[in-house]
Please model this.
Amino acid sequence: VDADDGDGVQEGREVVQQSDELFPLWVILAVCAAIVHPPSVTWLHGDLITLCVGATMVFTGMTLTLDDFKKILQRPSQVAMGFLCQYTIMPFFGYFIAKIMKLSPDVAAGVILVACCPGGTSSNLITLIARGDVALSVLMTTASTAVASIITPTLVAQLAGNLVALDAWGLVKSTFQVVMAPVAAGILINKYFPTISRLAVTVTPMLSVWLVALICGSIIGQTSSALMVAGPAVAIAMTLLHGGGFVFGWGIPKLLGYSERVARTTSVETGIQSSALAVVLATRHFPNPISSSLPGALSGTVQSVMGSIMATAWHYSSIQEEAENTQSFLDGMKNPTELLSDAKIVEMWDLYDVNGNGALEKAELLQLLIGVYKEQISVIMEQSDIYQTRMAKAIGARATSKLAQMLQTASFMGVKACEDQIKALNAGQAPELNDLFEKLDGDGDGIISKEDYEAYGPQIIKSTFVPAYMRLY
Model:
């Protein structure tokens, strides 16, 4: 929220966010309304449905910039993986489910159409709830939407063309009109009217949720006769389709070695389809629009319920998971002062007892302390390397990566503190040196015996000269 936003705007955004998170509820309510009193939702039909889908695409475009498309090139492997899962797993699942369940040609074509559509806009919200990578989710949705006007009609023609008579070119034109043109319009609004766009996007997610719910309810109301006959079979088909997308969309990234967070994101992107687009295309270009649009209507209900349940389960499992990741990250890690052992400090005596007389003068003690700090820098950097290694493995576990970054920062602060203390000692500006010398020079003869150093030196040095940064550990 911008600093100049008032409390009212802040509260408004919270209300909108809460409304977005109730997406499955709105869909279920719309479907119930369609069953109990169809006219309450069936007033939305024909070109009005097309207009509503176009509006949701404009809203999507208003959240994007041209830089978002450039960012795809910065994460090519992850985006490509999501793209391939979207346009391989789902289309072939849809085809085989329709075949195995022996659905009627019109209904089977509708199932395949849903499977060939790009990712749905609700995937970004579900990814957020699931504690996935929202930025990656947006990139994947952007990539699948950008080519939908070509890939969706092509896949549908190949997989469903032998089931029903299709106007392939009509599918291409409609997909372009309903997807690409509105998204492009939204991007232009965001570019040339950023203030309007910034204000609008506070409510457009909620409007998109309501419009999609209303579209699903309207189609259910209009297809009540087909629903009575084919409804249970279509519901099972949609459950298998979206369930398969969720499962394989999660499993493939895990097999390829990606993090849990990336796997969750890919799962949601694969399993969530643009059901509203499927409804529009079926209504416009399929010979029996009532039967062929039914899978799209039920898809919106099934995927929103399944996706939300899955996301909620992941959301709460992440809390425990992050705690375990944090503990795992910390296992074996030590405060650098612990790594600088008492034995190491005792061993340093021989390096700085230049005269070999078993006693240290103040000048020799000064050099020994400088050596202690240099040794401390060495062990700090050793720990720092471990932080970097573990942090690279912890990408995707937010709590762990943040902890790693904090410890890394503390390490750099520690090195700087040690270097500053060395400079102070060399410049004679470390009053702690005199205090240390007095504590170790028990008999006050101006020298420190090896026995006193071994007995008291490590403890006094580590307690007196530990930089304040160590408290961060």
User: Anything to note?
Assistant: Confidence is low (pLDDT under 50) at residues 1-6, 394-400, 468-473. The two ends are 33 Å apart (CA to CA). The chain is about 80% helix and 0% strand.
